[in-house]
Amino acid sequence: MTIERMLMMAAGVAAEYPDVVDFIYSYAPDDDLDFDYRVNSFTMSPDGRYISASDISYSTDEIDQWTLTTPYDISTAVRGASYYIGTLSDNPYASTYDDTGDQLFVASLYSNPGIQTYDLSIPYTGAPIATTRNLHLTGVITYVRNVAFSADGLIMFVLCNLTTNQTTSSIAVYYLSTPWDLSTTAGGNNYDQVFQMATNDTMTAISLSPDGKKLVIAGRTTQTLRQWNLSEAWDLSSRTEVASLPTSPIAEPIGFHIDWVAKKLYILNFIGTHAIHELGV
Length: 281
Fold this sequence. Notes:
The chain is mainly beta. The protein has one helix at about 5-15, and strands spanning about 25, 35, 40-45, 50-55, 60-70, 75-85, 90-95, 105-110, 115-120, 130, 135, 145-150, 155-160, 170-175, 195-200, 205-210, 215-220, 225-230, 240-245, 255-260, 265-270, 275-280. The protein has a single domain (about 5-280), classed as Glycosyl hydrolase domain, family 43 (Tachylectin-2, Chain A). The radius of gyration is 17 Å and the shape is globular. About 40% of the residues are buried.
């Protein structure tokens, strides 16, 4: 972690993390980062320099990497390597890093739904190396959409559909005895808690603020980013829905990333240009 990032995080502790309605979209297509048609989600390193995207186009089953020559500026993205991960991750739908960038967690959508852990040979940018620290969810969850963790890596949140009804969206919660280690879940592949988040919205991506007090989920059907505040950090039973941000003119948000400290929001749309669009407060 850079000194610059540490100073930003220290400032973020004292300041309020933004609400989703604080972000403003200024349409500038030349600044967007265009993706292949079947890239469904992406994640960005905390320093704003690297992007990993999940690509399931025509059974490609790849992780595509990008480097931003100017941090947080997606118009400066340069395409890097692509790595096939289909042997372990069938239909990789989303991914996220651990707190150091040494591990990449991939959410496999269906066929063999689950969360897979890959070690990275170089933080954020190295080749993904398959591990056995995986969570197989066949018979427990039908569609795995996205995954997020608490700041200490001891709680995992899996955005999912428990049945084939894709507009009934839930979050399954898993507690880990060892941070970031999926082999240490309390109940194996059975979730510890589950919370229904919508009955009429296909939810596709999730983000939690570093203090665990704000939760944002992308609603592809409603074309909004929906926010809940949590009165108890990381405890979804204490949630209250407080706001939503219409994503128009970005059609059908399928992936997004919030850098809560830098106060930047990036949205990937499914319909139209299929690109990442940048917003700021």
